[in-house]
Amino acid sequence: MAAHQFILNGQTVTVEAPGDLPLLWVLRDVLGVTGPKYGCGVGVCGACTSHLDGESFRPCLQPVASVAGREVLTIEGLGGEGLHPVQEAWIAEDVAQCGFCQPGQIMAAVALLRKNPHPSDADIDAAMSDNVCRCGTYVRIRAAIQRAALLLRSGAGIRGGWTR
Fold this sequence. Notes:
- It contains six helices and five strands, in the order E-E-H-E-E-E-H-H-H-H-H.
- The protein is an alpha+beta fold and 164 residues long.
- It has two domains: 2-78, Beta-grasp domain (Ubiquitin-like (UB roll)), CATH 3.10.20.30; 85-154, DNA polymerase, domain 1.
- Helix 3 crosses helix 6.
- The chain is globular, with a radius of gyration of 15 Å.
- InterPro entries: 2Fe-2S-bd, 2Fe-2S-bd_dom_sf, 2Fe-2S_ferredoxin-like_sf, 2Fe-2S_ferredoxin-type, 2Fe2S_fd_BS, Beta-grasp_dom_sf, Diverse_Oxidoreductases.
């Protein structure tokens, strides 16, 4: 066991854990951050998708020791005091069915829109292809990402704190 310090959703945290423990277990079991879901544990489903230093990543594959001093953002920290425009679009498009994959889907969508504020449907399909939705809401996911892109470009629906 060792102490590992990193920034989680804007706050510095220190945890005691084996360095090779996947970050997903530290987030969920040690810190009580349950937005990132355990789906497969091998990085293929996308249910745990979060951001590491602003880039999309899978905490189920990342050992806690590797995030020392780095910034981890989960869905819990995404909107600050309000909803992020992607979350607003998800609600407006009624995307979620069972909801299990949605935190990972939303975090992947935010990463996409940060890199590409004008995505085509093909861009969205390619960027989201590694995030699995068991309910098959892919058409609504695409519509929500297009809506969020418009919100972000226009500044409509923006609340303070979502700049992450």
